[in-house]
Design goal:
By secondary structure, the protein is mainly α. It contains 16 helices and no strands. The N terminus is likely disordered.
């Protein structure tokens, strides 16, 4: 029996979907393998919480610029697959270079390089992972990023526990990115030619989606402030190390993977996506309050589960909205969301370092909770405005239809 063209296309699409899942798995495995120990290594090399924050901020600056620049190029030229391949190859070299850091300055240099490299592929990969009217595909790809983070943090914590060295963890991260580059060579995703036509500027795109970006950024500034000192908090105040430290991060990642592959795959309507963002940031506020009051390892476990659920709602909800509302600029809009995330890392890392230096580690978590609540207020107002706009448009359509029907009736009566 001859194989139809549709069968071949379906097979290629399935292969591409599997490769995209693998790529997100590899990317986040590498990031997780290195990120777990970056704050601790930076604190060891510099002896200053403020310098830990500055190193985190430097990484965020270069990554934010890279996301915006390469996401726009991907939309402009439509060469999504090429940007994915370039990003993975560059990231491999950048993370291998982490093994060469021997003081605060060299660590800063390799973190800057990593920021540029990891910003190259994100927007293009999100655009390739989303089909119109099918949030499930994107949820599946993104969920493997969470699984990758789980695998990376656990693998690197085991390596560090066995060898008492961070070098092998960074070599592991670079090797995984290299495996991702090899995997990307098999991508055969067909890019819509309309993606090559990009209207307006990044500033106009930022204004168009301003409230989504603002709500996301407020939440992530608070989160980044805590993440910049969280491993130090777990290590110094709760006395966790090695596998215990990795398992705390693993609980969050595993929760994300399961929640995205079950609940988040079924989200379709506009109202649901906006509600997800609202609930996500409100739950995030509760997570940081729990951190603030925790005194043992046991207290952190339910907080990590709640964190996984809240982040899944916020992140995928935001991506759904942006990909649906910015056709033709999907790589740019999602890459810009990642840029806002990186800018949040810049601001949050600095805030976290300064607050921890002068007010203690737990004060950072209290501030994070307050910023998440501010994000909730912005998200609620955005949804109300959109509902109001939808209601006005609906009334206008009804009025227009009634006017047309009335005009037809008059013509029939007078003819």
């Amino acid at each position: 029996m001859p194989i139809s063209y549709k069968t071949i296309m379906a097979s290629d699409d399935g292969d591409d979907k599997a490769r995209l899942k693998a790529l997100n798995l590899f990317a986040n495995s590498s990031l997780g393998a290195s990120a777990l120990f970056i704050p601790i290594l930076a604190n060891t090399l510099t002896g200053s919480y403020i310098l830990v924050g500055i190193i985190g901020a430097g990484y965020g600056i270069t990554q934010a610029l890279s996301y915006a620049y390469f996401g726009r190029l991907a939309d402009k030229f439509g060469a999504m697959v090429k940007f994915v391949r370039l990003g993975f190859l560059a990231s491999s070299f950048a993370f291998f270079a982490h093994a060469l850091a021997y003081d605060g300055f060299t660590l800063m240099l390799v973190r800057l390089a990593a920021g540029v490299a990891t910003g190259m592929y994100a927007g293009a990969m999100f655009a390739l992972s989303h089909d119109k009217g099918n949030n499930g595909k994107l949820a599946g790809v993104v969920s493997f990023g969470s699984l990758g983070w789980l695998m990376g943090t656990m693998a690197s914590s085991i390596v560090q526990q066995l060898t008492s060295s961070y070098t092998l963890a960074f070599i592991l991260a670079g090797s995984i990115f290299l495996a991702g580059f090899v995997t990307s060579l098999g991508l055969k995703v067909r890019v819509d030619a309309s993606n090559a036509s990009v209207a307006g500027s990044l500033l106009q795109l930022a204004r168009k989606n301003g409230r989504i970006y603002t709500s996301f950024m407020l939440r992530h500034v608070g989160a980044a402030a805590t993440w910049s000192i969280f491993p130090i908090f777990l290590n110094q105040e709760l006395r966790l190390d090695g596998v215990e430290l990795g398992s705390i991060y693993a609980i969050n990642a595993l929760t994300q993977f399961l929640f995205m592959n079950t609940v988040m795959k079924r989200v379709r309507s506009d109202a649901n996506t906006h509600r997800l963002v609202q609930v996500g940031v409100l739950l995030s506020s509760a997570v940081f309050i729990t951190y603030y009051s925790s005194t043992t390892y046991i207290h952190i476990i339910p907080a990590q589960i709640l964190l996984g659920i809240s982040w899944s709602m916020l992140y995928l909800g935001s991506l759904y909205i942006l990909l649906r509302n910015n056709d033709g600029e999907r790589a740019s809009s999602t890459a810009l969301l990642e840029s806002y995330m990186s800018i949040s890392i810049i601001i949050g890392s600095l805030i976290g370092g300064i607050v921890a230096e002068f007010a203690g580690l737990r004060s950072v978590m209290l501030l994070s909770s307050l910023l998440c609540f501010a994000s909730f207020v912005v998200a609620v107002n955005d949804w109300k405005m959109r509902r109001g706009t939808m209601s006005i448009k609906m009334l206008q359509n009804i009025s227009h239809n009634l006017s047309n029907r009335y005009a037809r009736m008059l013509r029939q009566l007078t003819s």
